[in-house]
Write a structure and sequence with these properties.
elongated, 8-stranded parallel beta barrel, disordered N terminus, alpha/beta, 12 helices, 433 residues
């Protein structure tokens, strides 16, 4: 699968984000701070306009303002919990599809789909209350939804027996994954659905997050085989998510037009086989928001440990967990407080304030400390951690009793606070002595 041209090299100096000065954002809202560029999110939504339905996996970035933004671009939403159902409704999504078919002859689209491997009791209550479509990742969910929503239509999430991801921890297919219904069990699962009085109208496959298109392309053939077992009741097929995002210098954006053509060809073969139209969905998460996001953090100490120089900042893995979880690479740039910085670069490691040796942003898989070339920095300068709009705030924590940072959306050159910074009082709210 071919690729498009490489993005520009990441700068080591940054004065603005989406036209707003980094220093002004930091002074107005404090650090650490999450900032999102609305125009980048719109651009990524429009990259996928060829698909019948783009469904945002909101677990990547579930701020209400971000959900409202993608909704305004015609993007539907995926929910994996009761809380995400509540977020989708609060952002303006309808709970269930309109009864009339779409004007393009396709079956109705579900604004919200609940996708999970289990129902906890609260999520089953929410699905039944709001009439939300369910994507079942385990066969036991079939009877559970049938008891509460007799005659419902459901989607099956199928594990095709293989998977891939940017890390083994993000691989969602094969025997090593808990996700989805095993492909060999489909005949029995279809019998269970029939006995329960449910119609299987959707088929979904997702093999991993941040994988490459060559592996994602294998899913089309596997889905087509399973679709043949399910038969004419299908009205929607989903390619899942996992679209890659370029984080490192030299990485490129993938050829999404070629990827769509592959899936469109699969869809058309199935339409010919079944004799009716099929809705073709894609379910991106990080792809829509990763590049839009920045973490602004202040440098609070500069020191040497033997021959290695460290910049210590006020963000930690409680702010951005991807490096400690996966050894993930994030571009970094410096915003000096005292005007122009030196053009000379030096190798530095970047760490946070937490009482953990793993609180390092420049680490590789396995926890090994690495360095990054940056201009000489001083206490009070700002460091900007880039491509941080996916799995940033949503994975943040109060570890070391650190308040959660604020979130800001920049749109049309104007910065808008979309989540207030937590206070010390927020940290202990609900606790008692």
């Amino acid at each position: 699968m071919s690729t498009t041209s490489s993005p520009a090299e990441q700068p080591v100096l940054r004065d603005t984000i989406a036209g707003v000065r980094v220093a002004d954002l930091a002074r107005s809202h404090g650090t650490p701070l999450y900032v999102y560029d609305a125009e980048i999110i719109r651009r990524r939504c429009r990259d996928l306009a060829a698909w019948d339905t783009v469904r945002f996996a909101q677990k990547a970035c579930s701020n209400l303002a971000v959900l409202a933004l993608v909704r305004s671009e015609g993007v539907m939403v995926d929910a994996v919990s009761t809380g995400e159902i509540h977020r989708a409704l609060a952002a303006g999504y309808a709970a269930h599809a309109a009864k009339a078919p779409a004007t393009d002859g396709l079956p109705p689209v579900h604004p919200i789909v609940y996708t999970a491997d289990i129902f906890d009791r609260e999520s089953l209550d929410a699905v039944a209350k709001h009439g939300i479509h369910v994507n079942c990742g385990s066969a036991d969910m079939i009877e559970q939804v049938a008891e509460r929503v007799p005659g419902a239509e459901i989607t099956l999430r199928v594990n095709p027996g293989f998977g891939h991801g940017h890390s083994q921890k993000t691989n969602t297919g094969g025997e090593g994954s808990k996700h989805g219904i095993w492909h060999g069990e489909i005949p029995e699962v279809l019998r269970r659905a029939e006995w329960a009085g449910l119609a299987v109208t959707g088929l979904h496959m997702h093999i991993g997050s941040g994988t490459d298109l060559a592996h994602l392309a294998e899913v089309a053939g596997a889905l087509e085989r399973v679709a043949g077992e399910i038969g004419r009741s299908l009205t929607t097929i989903s390619a899942g998510g996992g679209l890659p995002v370029p984080y490192k210098p030299g990485e490129v954006h993938a050829d999404l037009s070629g990827y769509f053509q592959l899936w469109d060809t699969t869809r058309r073969r199935l339409e010919d086989r079944f004799g009716h139209r099929l809705r073709l969905e894609i379910e991106p998460g990080r792809y829509l928001t990763a590049e839009s996001g920045f973490v602004i953090t202040e440098i609070r100490a500069v020191k040497k440990q033997g021959g290695r120089k460290y910049l210590l900042v006020d963000a930690g893995f409680n702010t951005l967990a991807r490096p400690v979880l996966y050894g993930s690479y994030h571009p970094m740039s410096l915003c000096p407080q005292a005007g122009a910085a030196s053009e000379t670069l030096e190798e530095v490691a970047v760490g946070g304030p937490l009482c953990e040796s793993g609180d390092i942003f420049t680490q590789t898989d396995g926890g090994f400390v690495a360095t990054r070339p940056l201009p000489p920095a001083a206490v009070g300068d700002y460091l900007v951690i880039e491509i941080a709009g996916a799995y940033g705030f949503v994975m943040a924590s109060n570890y070391n009793s650190k308040p959660l940072p604020a979130e800001v959306l920049v749109d049309g050159g104007k910065a808008r606070l979309v989540r207030a910074r937590q206070t010390p009082e927020d940290l202990v709210r609900g606790e008692c002595v």
